[in-house]
Amino acid sequence: MKALSVLRLLPLVALLTAWLPTAALAEGEAAVVAGADAMYTVNNTWMLVATFLVFIMHLGFASLEAGLTRAKNTVNILFKNTAIISIGLLTYAVVGFNLMYPGDFSLGGWFGFGGFGIGVSPEDMMVAGDDGVGIYTYWTDFIFQAMFAATAATIVSGAVAERIKLHSFLIFSTIYVALVYPWVGSWKWGGGWLDEMGFYDFAGSTLVHSVGGWAALVGVSLLGPRLGKYVSGGIKPILGHNMPLATIGVFLLWLGWFGFNGGSVLSADPELVSFVFVTTSLAAAAGVIGAMTISWIIQKKPDLSMALNGALAGLVGITAGADVVSVMSAVIIGLLAGFLVVASVMVLDRCKLDDPVGAISVHLVCGIWGTLAVGIFSAEHSFVTQLIGVAAYGVTCFIAAMVLFLVVKAIFGLRVDEKEEMIGLDLGEHGMEAYSGFEIHNS
Amino acid sequence: MKALSVLRLLPLVALLTAWLPTAALAEGEAAVVAGADAMYTVNNTWMLVATFLVFIMHLGFASLEAGLTRAKNTVNILFKNTAIISIGLLTYAVVGFNLMYPGDFSLGGWFGFGGFGIGVSPEDMMVAGDDGVGIYTYWTDFIFQAMFAATAATIVSGAVAERIKLHSFLIFSTIYVALVYPWVGSWKWGGGWLDEMGFYDFAGSTLVHSVGGWAALVGVSLLGPRLGKYVSGGIKPILGHNMPLATIGVFLLWLGWFGFNGGSVLSADPELVSFVFVTTSLAAAAGVIGAMTISWIIQKKPDLSMALNGALAGLVGITAGADVVSVMSAVIIGLLAGFLVVASVMVLDRCKLDDPVGAISVHLVCGIWGTLAVGIFSAEHSFVTQLIGVAAYGVTCFIAAMVLFLVVKAIFGLRVDEKEEMIGLDLGEHGMEAYSGFEIHNS
Amino acid sequence: MKALSVLRLLPLVALLTAWLPTAALAEGEAAVVAGADAMYTVNNTWMLVATFLVFIMHLGFASLEAGLTRAKNTVNILFKNTAIISIGLLTYAVVGFNLMYPGDFSLGGWFGFGGFGIGVSPEDMMVAGDDGVGIYTYWTDFIFQAMFAATAATIVSGAVAERIKLHSFLIFSTIYVALVYPWVGSWKWGGGWLDEMGFYDFAGSTLVHSVGGWAALVGVSLLGPRLGKYVSGGIKPILGHNMPLATIGVFLLWLGWFGFNGGSVLSADPELVSFVFVTTSLAAAAGVIGAMTISWIIQKKPDLSMALNGALAGLVGITAGADVVSVMSAVIIGLLAGFLVVASVMVLDRCKLDDPVGAISVHLVCGIWGTLAVGIFSAEHSFVTQLIGVAAYGVTCFIAAMVLFLVVKAIFGLRVDEKEEMIGLDLGEHGMEAYSGFEIHNS
Fold first, then answer.
1. What is the ipTM of this complex?
2. Contact present, A127 and A141 (Cβ < 8 Å)
3. Where are the domains of chain B?
4. Could you confirm whether domain C23-118+131-430 is CATH 3.40.50.800?
5. What would you report as the CA-atom Rg of chain A, rounded to the nearest whole angstrom?
6. Does C83 reach chain B within 8 Å, measured CB to CB?
7. CB under 8 Å to B294, separation ≥6 — which residues?
8. Residue C225 per-residue DSSP state
9. What's the topology of domain B47-430?
10. One CATH from 1.10.260.40, 3.90.1150.100, 3.60.21.10, 1.10.3430.10 for A26-430
11. What count of other Cβ atoms lies within 10 Å of the Cβ of residue C350?
12. Measured between alpha carbons, how far is A78 from C247 in angstroms, rounded to an integer?
């Protein structure tokens, strides 16, 4: 501010020298920088908040899966979820991030790889938007995307629960999350061929949820149903052992979705992020109402599991288009997702595809629905392109998961033996119980 | 920055032309805008953080209510809470928001309605403060308030638990949250008659908590106590079935309160938000100490339920004045709220008002206390005006809840039959158990 | 903007008067302020987010401790954790904050006290960085640090669980958190002698975790093992009663650590905070992998408790150097912490030091490891100085905890009687059960 007092004393002198306007402008420039710095900081801060929200989804998945299955397999499920987030973060650092965002593609828009590991020199640290204003750091970019990566594998975990061998599952999901998820993800979010074609998937109805969902479908097909699930032509419901835990899971997932969708704006843009909060919340609410109503009508009883899955159905459904559909469309998308999830659960049971937590119905069926809904409810997006995207991910992930699961099956086997399945994987695989001291009669 | 180099080369020419000062100012102006843009973004981001914090309170309520009641009614409680947040969000979008913030009142400051549905044209998107700096978007305004709305109904849920018919409760709370809550809310937060009178309720000791509390009181009175609660002149404690779940509930509520109170600043103002964090935290802590001490003295045993309700008592108590009382006053308000909640629980039991989770004591009694405390501890607010506000909400909500409950009772009945109450609402209403496989002996 | 139109009309006149450059600069200056205001606001907002994240760690501790111990002591553990956070917040307001950040030291860098209570005049409200830009308010500074304070006492809680008298524990931890934690904390974070010596502890591997860990070690030594733990030369595992609860605990602690470490940047600096997110996450993940692998090899079974403690080990390990070690170093630190925690649990059991939740192994052993790791993996820090710091805290905290525990033991006794330990502290101390209605056979 010293320049200022000089100016006050000697305005005319100042006007005749070269440095005045420069100083005035430099001052203005500094101010511009200060505003942009603050914008960079708030953008980055929001993305870190979104990051920890996506992180907590992993506790949501763990709780939901454990709650909807039997007490005798709880430790196994918790172990898998603790391991997956850890494996997912580390593999994403080693290889996933640079596969998903390769920079350049070496095979058209189909495949690229930016090298092993993460780390940059300071001058590359800030990632800026088109206007040059920083939106986040390189590190934020990595950790936000890393939190996403592991969700795909976690989705599989619920579908194959209560009968898959622990190490077989861990090997499958390590490779799926390290290689398949980022590779197909690059097609859209890495700027690959589907991105160039105009395919739209805002936060991952297809790229995350259906990618996990397809692997879940393959896993369930190969494993077969749990013992006693389909007997003499009938369907025997196998009840979850802890509904408060399942409810905690769904609420934490809903919470995390504010980061999953809200962070996918990739900045703290006030209008976009807040709009995404609204569409996300209302779609989830409509999903609950949809699933609750239809299941109440069909089963004559209000079904908590269905209401909970309805919330997730609405959330998965809105994920592809949360920023490009209207509020009313979001409600319709969520409501239909709520109907769909109930129908899908019933159809899968008819097909003897035993998915203990409804992961295929929630993540695959509603993931497809949400992606197609963008082509229906947003005038700027083509239904056909959306369909091509859905099909491309479907074919690729189905084949990749099938090959991977078959290789793992050939080497290690997939399913625990009958005796272990009866006593539960907690004692069988881990030698411990989830609820030591409690009197529990296992079905 | 091109202008800059020109200036360096030709300062004198520049001084003699009209565009120099304009350019210099325009540069400065751009800088001002950039700073204001960043401020708008951080304000809005904080409000969205507050929004997801208030969202998680619904999981807090669900956990607390389920934990403090019996295992046989757990599914029912979880179902109600999942349904209420969903219904609350949707009805607030359809009618609540425009009832609560009508813009203009058609009946003095008593009633106004801005029309059905939400949605605006882009030019109305930014909501700015008095200085013209944006504080949040229209969408943020909606979704933050929408998260609040459902809490009022959730409060009722705990008080009427273990004996109310599911559909009767859902119908009551849908109407209460869609119409009554926003209508009476408009009197203060919508700029209505109580606001003009100088009534103060920062974040809703009265507007949210007592509004729910009055309906809880009416519901409990109409339903009568649970079977076996008051027998042969004595009070038989009916214990909660899952204290870790109740504790999770209280900590999540406390967490959510940082958004409930912190977001009620309606901007990210550093001094106000951080001050509110301090008063909120210390009042909650003092509430724990107050309830813990007094119950330890009276019952000779340190009571976990009372300590937990003490935290909520302190939080409800500080909600009305978190930004206008001193730190020391916040501690006193919380401490007294802790005493009050214990006394109230005992008095209600004497009156045979059976409130399984203490919702009336926490939300109504401490809501009134907190509102009156503003008139005591803040020199700028009148005790009499605070009392008028409390009375106005009391009379209106009591009558509204009474009429609504009586109409619902006349049409659908309120209470499940005795047999269903004995076997529990989980089997009775939902045909499922919360803890399948566990050996549980119901009281 | 009025000045602007004048300028447009009368540029030459303006140039010849004294106020033009002043106005131009003032405009620029206002712009600088606007940017700085926004930066202050986002810095402060991030610190408040970090504050609520650290708050939720207390729920994490409560859940983890309750989950890893027996059902008959659950209410007692939940009560302790609810009480400690409340006591911690209040004592930190009364005395702790001004002991830890005394401003001036009266005894060299060894002891200082800024007076009782908190509260400032408005002109002191903003705490600014070296560049004059605000980073948080006085209130934020207090509440963020207050949330930290109680964690030290909570760490002790888990180690002494299932056998310590409630009031003895509360008296010990009140004094420890009110006086010892802030006093020794002042040596580094308050600018005391260890800070001047160049000792480095970013977020508290030593100042928080080992301070709690030393007291845990003393408590465990004085109390002796739980009945039946070490019988006839063998070690009898006493299993936790609720593994979902323990898992919830660990995930919430991991979540909270984003605030614990991320907030310790003491601003929203994009590069530093995001880098800390990355090192923290990868160290936690590596800790899981380390503990999982080593325990799988040794015990032949994948152990969920070890995997969970591995996450915490990695988190405690990275806490001292999260901002100064490389990503690869963070992974190595976490991995070794995962090995260490498993080894330490086994060694402690050999020494008949019975720590039900592994608190000493996680917080003390990995706290020391993390502090020394700064001297190994960061070229700018001295291993010897780190060792001096570790020793200084070790000697002081060990002696302080020993004296305190012995005084409490002499006056009130430390351990519940044998009968109470058998029936459990829930019935013995609180007269209530955590899981009313459930059939539980206690070991």
1. 0.93
2. yes
3. 47-430
4. no
5. 25
6. yes
7. B306, B338, B339, B342, B343
8. P
9. Ammonium transporter fold (1.10.3430)
10. 1.10.3430.10
11. 9
12. 7
In the block, residue with structure tokens 């170093």: C329
Of B28, B240, B288, the CB nearest to C83: B288
Question: What chains are in contact with C, requiring at least 3 Cβ pairs below 8 Å?
Answer: A, B
Residue numbers in A near B427 (CB within 8 A): none
| Residue B413 burial (CB count, 10 A) | 13
Distance CA A161, CA A355 (A): 8
Tell how strand A134-137 and strand C126-128 pair up. unpaired
Q: Identify any residues that bridge with C134 across adjacent strands, giving them in sequence order.
A: C128
Q: pLDDT in tens for each of the 443 residues of chain B?
A: 333 333 333 333 333 333 333 444 444 555 566 788 999 999 999 999 999 999 999 999 999 999 999 999 999 999 999 999 999 999 999 999 999 999 889 888 999 998 888 986 656 799 998 888 899 999 999 999 999 998 887 999 999 999 999 999 999 999 999 999 999 999 999 999 999 999 999 999 999 999 999 999 999 999 999 999 998 889 999 999 999 999 999 999 999 999 999 999 999 999 999 999 999 999 999 999 999 999 999 999 999 999 999 999 999 999 999 999 999 999 999 999 999 999 999 999 999 999 999 999 999 999 999 999 999 999 999 999 999 999 999 999 999 999 999 999 999 999 999 999 999 999 999 999 999 999 998 76
A28 interaction partners in chain C (CB closer than 8 Å): 27-28, 31
Residue A270 in contact with residue B49, Cβ under 8 Å? no
Tell me, yes or no, if A439 comes closer than 8 A to chain B by beta carbon.
yes
Between CA B277 and CA B284 the distance in angstroms is 11
d(CA A276, CA C399): 55
Please give the span between the terminal C-alpha atoms of chain C, in angstroms, as a whole number.
Answer: 78
Give the CA radius of gyration of chain C.
Answer: 25
Its sign, for the CA torsion C161, C164, C170, C175, is negative
In the chain, the amino acid numbered C217 is L
Tokens 């992998």 label which residue?
C289
Could you write out the three-class secondary structure of chain A? CHHHHHHHHCHHHHHHCCHHHHHHHHHHHHHHHHHHHHHHHHHHHHHHHHHHHHHHHHHHHHHHHHHCCCHHHHHHHHHHHHHHHHHHHHHHHHHHHHHHCCCCCCECCCECCCCCCCCCCHHHCEEECCCCCEEEEHHHHHHHHHHHHHHHHHHHHHHCCCCECHHHHHHHHHHHHHHHHHHHHHCCCCCCHHHHHCCCCCCCHHHHHHHHHHHHHHHHHHHCCCCCCEECCEECCCCCCCHHHHHHHHHHHHHHHHHHHHHHHCCCCHHHHHHHHHHHHHHHHHHHHHHHHHHHHHHCCCCHHHHHHHHHHHHHHHHCCCCCCCHHHHHHHHHHHHHHHHHHHHHHHHCCCCCCCCHHHHHHHHHHHHHHHHHHHCCCCCHHHHHHHHHHHHHHHHHHHHHHHHHHHHHHCCECCHHHHHHCHHHHHHCCCCCCCECECCC
Minimal CA–CA distance to B286: which of B319, B258, B314, B264?
B314
Residues 144-163 of B with CB under 8 A from A: 146
> Roughly how many angstroms between the first and final C-alpha of chain B, as a whole number?
78
**How many of the other CB atoms lie within 10 Å of CB of A233?**
5
- Count Cβ–Cβ pairs < 8 Å, chain A vs chain B: 242
Say if the Cβ atoms of A270 and B44 lie within 8 Å. Answer: yes
For residue C320, give the amino acid letter: A
Tokens of C162: 């299932």
- Rounded Cα distance, A100 and A415, in Å: 31
Interface contact flag, C244 A434, Cβ < 8 Å: yes
The letter for the amino acid at A124 is D
Query: What SS3 state is found at B128?
Result: strand
